[in-house]
Prior knowledge:
Blueprint lengths: L2 H12 L4 H13 L1 H6 L1 H6 L2 H6 L3 E10 L5 E12 L5 E7 L5 H17 L5 E7 L8 H15 L8 E4 L6 H15 L19 H19 L8 E5 L3 H12 L3 E6 L3 E4 L6 H10 L7 H4 L4 E4 L10 E4 L8 H9 L4 E3 L8 H9 L3 E3 L1 H4 L1 H16 L5 H25 L6 H19 L4
Helix pairs in contact: 1-2, 2-6, 6-18, 7-8, 9-10, 9-16, 9-17, 13-14, 16-17, 17-18
Amino acid sequence: MSYIDEVIEQVIKQNPAEPEFHQAVKEVLESLRVVVDANEETFRRDALLERLVNPERQLKFRVPWVDDKGQVHVNTGYRVQFNSAIGPYKGGIRLHPSVNLGIIKFLGFEQIFKNSLTGLPIGGGKGGSDFDPKGKSDREIMAFCQSFMTELCKYIGADTDVPAGDIGTGAREIGYMFGQYKRIKGVFEGVLTGKGLSYGGSLARTEATGYGLLYITDEMLRSNGHSIKGKTVAVSGAGNVAIYAAQKAQQLGAKVVTVSDSNGWIYDPDGIDVEALKDIKEVKRLRLTEYPKYRPNAEYHEGRGVWSVKVDIALPCATQNELDLEDAKMLVANGVMAVAEGANMPTTMEATEYLQKNGVYFLPGKAANAGGVATSALEMSQNSERLSWSFEEVDSKLQGIMVNIFKNLDAAAKKYGFEGNYVVGANIAGFEKVVAAMNAQGII
Ligand code: NDP
């Protein structure tokens, strides 16, 4: 059995009931075959892959909090500090009822390679809780966030582990967590990113993941003789990534015709009204059923279906495994030319293979959505300098980073004979830097 197959088997055996983690490990290791096979003897001797797939540390803790009626609830909190070879752990905090250790591990594992691809000195980590922020009052959100941070603050710090937002964790939650960290530790430091502008946040961080997704997608299209301009785009999700992906797509001259949430999806033939979307989701925190009140021409459909619309480009920006083989078949039948992942692992492995086999340009999340964490790292730099950069400065750095990521992964794919396979390119480019750092630091 090959070294890679042995390690995959071991991961499944040692981490039962963590299918998303198995999926992420398989996806990454399979695409690294060409590099691992060429170094099999030394990698095996140094147990390199075993060290890579085992987090340096994983924390699981109780998060008790009291609701507005005086009822006590107990959620589970997680922080997986996966790999610090190239810098302090960095990765978001996900608050969603579906969160479990396997989900956090899959996200943390992906984060190692994503962070490496940005070219910035940040290691991989991820955290979260099965807490559901939907329908909670501001006070309940604060109670949860304070309790969560009361435990987490023992393990994080500006030079050790710097969490950020993710699903369910936006500016409000980061604010409450930052406040509690400062109160307990007595230090004002850049321990979280995604902070408000009045207390150390970075301009353009809110927009960064969505904007970055469009910068790199445009770069991929350009390198293949096309561009975003004039294209029709399907976006899924209606959160932070989706909103700013839609906004930048429209600024670059595309027409975005869909968005979705966990209950249903919108088709707007005239192009999504991003200001209406922001008002519904960011200001009023309501459901997409409200959207047709702003845009009478738009249709609201209950359930799934966002990938059934005929578009040139699909940008899944909601959650893992939201684009499956059947969806991929519909997209291909409708002539889609590119799929770029705004979310983490939104496309199943079968769907990815089908898209690639059918000549669709496919950009994996660890490259396509790296603009968020890259800008978080820029926020860390600003905090260390005690300075704030202008929106234009951060945005132009973000553009440069996204273009570089594409160039690096494209070059890695070509170097190993996989031209046009951006999944292989991204994994190899991310892996090589982490391995070099791990080797230099000895067996730890
Ligand atoms: P938000 O919480 O702001 O938005 C998530 C969106 O996806 C919401 O519209 C939500 O709908 C929908 N969604 C969540 N879970 C499900 C589900 N199980 N089924 C269907 N729809 C769902 O999160 P973000 O926009 O921040 O994150 C979206 C994705 O992007 C995630 O995969 C995240 O890990 C990834 N990502 C985010 C980054 C960031 O900077 N924010 C950076 C890099 C990656 P509803 O409101 O109904 O739950």
